[in-house]
Q: What sequence folds into this?
């Protein structure tokens, strides 16, 4: 779809070519028009901290480029999506229809992402997903204008099962929130764990974003598994870690998780996170110069420590910079824009990663253990892990 501003810009270019160099004030204004970036992120609720970390990471990447994209000034628009899937389409349209953004950066919650996805596919507006791992976005419903700089929900947990079985934990209970992210994380976990020789003896769930875990923890105590594996994040992760410890389960049952369980929560969770093992495409403790520099710069700019969400936001910025530079800020030049973003290699604080044909990162997964206030790296649990991209016909 062509926006009104793009039409003005195009007619301005035509004027410049056909008139004798005489530019009307209106046309000059159109050509120096600002590029519009829309954030659709959670700024309230259980994922509020995640949204802020993503925005900060994105801004850091842009600020390293002098705060411009392809030479153009930027105007920012923001919508708090509240992690509410029921308002997903309406909120995405506030940015696309009302604010006429050139790109939507969002979001965190998989259900809300499906709302953005519908609007992105209908309008053709560029969407960069800085977190939500919903499979459909880069599998059956993949789209040329939708890119992800984070993960698919099953990517981190695919690598978890082998590490558990290697530690002798062959009987596990799985617990999560009952929505796409939890269910798809389970899919990855089940595939990896059963292939490694483990058995899931029970799958438990609570509705998102509930944090009433007591009845389930009592059930886990009675089941006596070797291990518990889970997907929780943000405020809910803090509550789950604390309740697991308060119930005394940490003494006899090893707790594992998709790495989000221990991201951005270590201060709040305190003792309850110690010794928890997770798999994730990032670790704060990654000993590479790119990560060390990123962590220094982020802490200096925002007076807080970055986590995986900040890294994903930073990489969304890096990807957009690549695209925008290739088209000198004219995001309506889609062929060249996508050409620069397809198959991009991103020099990330998580290590180098490449964009798959389905527009999802191909990346290493690390096994981590919480020691003090850090996710210490124990090793690489999966090398260049690529999502199946099943049903996607791009590239
Ligand atoms: C998701 O809904 O896709 C989601 C939310 C929070 C996370 C990871 C995935 O930390």
A:
């Amino acid at each position: 779809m062509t926006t009104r501003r793009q039409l003005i810009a195009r007619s301005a270019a035509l004027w410049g070519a056909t008139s004798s160099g005489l530019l009307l004030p209106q046309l000059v204004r159109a050509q120096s028009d600002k590029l519009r970036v829309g954030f659709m992120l959670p700024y309230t609720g259980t994922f509020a901290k995640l949204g802020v970390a993503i925005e900060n990471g994105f801004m850091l990447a842009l600020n390293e480029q002098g705060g411009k994209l392809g030479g153009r000034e930027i105007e920012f628009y923001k919508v708090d999506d509240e992690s509410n899937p029921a308002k997903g389409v309406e909120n995405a349209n506030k940015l696309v229809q009302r604010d006429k953004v050139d790109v939507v950066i969002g979001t965190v919650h998989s259900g809300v992402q499906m709302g953005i996805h519908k609007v992105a596919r209908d309008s053709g507006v560029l969407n960069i997903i800085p977190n939500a791992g919903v499979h459909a976005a880069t599998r059956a419903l993949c789209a040329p204008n939708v890119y992800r700089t984070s993960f698919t929900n099953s990517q981190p947990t695919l690598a978890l099962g082998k590490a558990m079985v290697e530690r002798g934990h062959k009987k596990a209970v799985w617990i999560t929130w009952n929505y796409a992210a939890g269910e798809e994380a389970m899919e990855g976990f089940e595939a990896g764990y059963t292939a490694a020789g483990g058995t899931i003896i029970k799958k438990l769930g609570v509705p998102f974003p509930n944090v009433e875990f007591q009845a389930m923890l009592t059930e886990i105590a009675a089941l006596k598994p070797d291990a518990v594996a889970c997907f929780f994040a943000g405020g809910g992760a803090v509550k789950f870690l604390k309740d697991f410890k308060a119930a005394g389960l940490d003494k006899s049952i090893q707790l594992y998780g998709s790495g989000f369980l221990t991201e951005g929560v270590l201060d709040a969770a305190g003792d309850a996170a110690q010794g928890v093992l997770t798999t994730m495409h990032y670790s704060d403790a990654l000993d590479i110069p790119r990560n060390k520099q990123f962590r220094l710069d982020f802490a200096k700019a925002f007076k807080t420590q970055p986590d995986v969400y900040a890294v994903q936001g930073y990489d969304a910025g890096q990807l957009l910079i690549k695209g925008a530079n290739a088209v000198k800020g004219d995001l309506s030049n889609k062929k060249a824009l996508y050409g620069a973003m397809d198959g991009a290699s991103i020099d990330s604080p998580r290590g180098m990663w490449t964009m798959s044909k389905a527009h999802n990162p191909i990346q290493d997964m690390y096994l981590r253990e919480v020691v003090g206030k850090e996710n210490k790296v124990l090793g690489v649990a999966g090398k260049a892990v690529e999502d199946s991209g099943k049903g996607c016909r791009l590239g």
Observations:
- Residues 1-32 have pLDDT under 50 and may be disordered.
